[in-house]
Amino acid sequence: MRKAFGPLLLVVAIMFVVAPFLIANAPYESTMGLIQKIFYYHVPSWFAMYLAIAVCGGASAVYLFKGTPIADAYATAGAEVAVVFGLCGLVTGPLWGRVAWGVWWQWDVRLTTALLLELIFIAYLMVRKFGGPGAEKLAAATALFGTATAPFVYKSVDIWRTVHPNTNVIPTLKPSMGGPFAFSSLAFLLLCTLLLTARVHLAKRQMTVDEMYLAYEDQS
Amino acid sequence: MFFRTAWLVLRKDVAIEVKSLEVLTTTLFFAIACVLIFAFAFVKNGQAPEDAAAGILWIAIAFSGTLALGRTFERERYAETLRALLLAPAPRPALYVGKLLGMLALLASAELLLVPLIAFLFQAALFSRPLLLVGILAGGTIGFCAVGTLFAAMLVRARSRDVLLPILLYPITIPVIIGGVRGTAALLASPVDEPSAIMWIGILAAFDVVFVTLSLWTFEPLMTE
Predict the structure, then answer these.
(1) Which of A120, B146, B153, B162 has the fewest Cβ atoms nearer than 10 Å?
(2) Which residues of B touch A113 (CB under 8 A)?
(3) B17 near B106, Cβ under 8 Å?
(4) Residues A82 and A49: beta-carbon distance below 8 Å
(5) Both ends of chain B: CA-CA distance in Å?
(6) Range of the domain at B15
(7) Nearest residue in chain A measured CA to CA from B152
């Protein structure tokens, strides 16, 4: 991954430069007009968050049962990246809602549960920061519960009648909209992967430094 | 062996509690204080809004439940009895089940007083469908306690556990609280909205299954030092 990191970073950068042109050329949605184009950032942000949550949940399960430190590094990276992309989704959502629904925030099931999911992963980071020794395992359990909530957040729009569009929108997109959407989704998922690997790499460096400190203290 | 261990842990917890009544009385008092505060917040001209009772009931359960969880495990920490329990050659998930049943018994006895009190204070027709009410209360309380017992047990060893328990517990259990509030509100609607009450009981049951399974699965590695 380390060798591929530079080229991939370049690819993502190019994709993020090209995406606005593709989005600008995509047709206007008939009822919402221009504001609908925030869709190309809003939905991929949540996709990226789900990816980060999946990484965090999987790594947490491995850490909980095997205790491998690298799994813990992946879990932390997943949680941090999930919070960042969740924040992107929570910012773009109200911007869209203000124009489409006339209000910044609606207490419907999708919005409420999405906010909850964000809160769970912020709680994860807080536990790690303030929990003291042994907090990693506690955080891992939090991550597992958060991961169990994620599918429920995704499906909530199909179970209840909500203001928020349901999951049928994406498979039934017109090709002229689906193309740019697939492009920006790919760009976000790739960016998410890159951020994850960069964060894990940082954690590995941190571990090496800690080991060197310990070795030095043993010597002197 | 499994059920016997769970039963012994439960019996121990009940015996301690019956002797001092410490957690039950403080929890109940706190719950009633919660009800009062929310009554001040919502009641206008001597009348509470229609389904405020549902929200107030579940807020009182969630807040006082957190207090009870913290207090119960604080007691285990003081005397290092949790460590003794974990040292015993007993299956760990059985210890969890025992603790969970203890918490459930505690909260159920608190609800036994809290629910009639709220029905009385807010003129809420909570008892028009007793079976559905029991289903909603059981579903909500089991989900809340399943997560609560796991996290409170883990936090026994953590720093700043008093702050971390609500921080972890509320985001994770909010789906259950929402289910409880909406289900109870469906019972309070006139005429009683039975289909939605039953739907919410189903959702609560689904969450209970997920939460209890996850807790049983993770309790062992979490409590291993």
Answers:
(1) B162
(2) 175
(3) yes
(4) yes
(5) 24
(6) 2-222
(7) A138
Q: Would the CB atoms of B158 and A134 count as touching at under 8 Å?
A: yes
A76 CB near a chain B CB, below 8 Å? no
**Concatenated DSSP letters of B42-106:** H-BTTB--TTHHHHHHHHHHHHHHHHHHHHHHHHHHHTTHHHHHHHSSS-HHHHHHHHHHHHHHH
Average pLDDT over residues B68-78: 87
- Provide the token pair at B103: 């918490």
> How buried is A212 (Cβ within 10 angstroms: 0-12 exposed, 13-18 middle, 19+ buried)?
exposed
End-to-end CA distance of chain A: 37
Which ipTM score applies to this complex? 0.84
Are B5 and B90 in contact by the 8 Å Cβ rule? The answer is: yes
Q: How far is A86 from chain B (nearest CA, A)?
A: 15
Which residues from A are below 8 Å from B210, CB to CB?
148
Cβ A144–B178 below 8 Å, yes or no?
Answer: no
- Per-domain residue ranges for chain A? 36-219
Q: Residues near A172 by Cβ (< 8 Å), separated by ≥ 6?
A: none
Q: Would you call A33 helix, strand, or coil by DSSP?
A: strand
Q: Is B103 exposed, middle or buried (0-12, 13-18, 19+ CB in 10 A)?
A: buried
**B199 in contact with A, Cβ within 8 Å:** no
CB contact under 8 A, B158 and A131: yes
**Number of domain units in chain B:** 1
The sign one gets for the Cα dihedral B5, B164, B176, A116 is negative
Q: How far apart are CA B45 and CA A216, in angstroms?
A: 72
In angstroms, the separation between the Cα of residue B137 and the nearest Cα of chain A is: 21
Contact between chains at A130 and B159 (C-beta distance less than 8 A) = yes
pLDDT band for B85, please (50, 70, 90 cuts).
Answer: confident
| Cα–Cα distance for residue pair B147/B155, rounded to 1 Å | 12
Contacts of B211 in chain A (CB under 8 A): 145, 148
- Residue-wise pLDDT for A78-123, tens only, equals 999 999 999 999 999 999 988 888 888 888 888 888 999 999 999 9
B168·A127 Cβ contact <8 A: yes
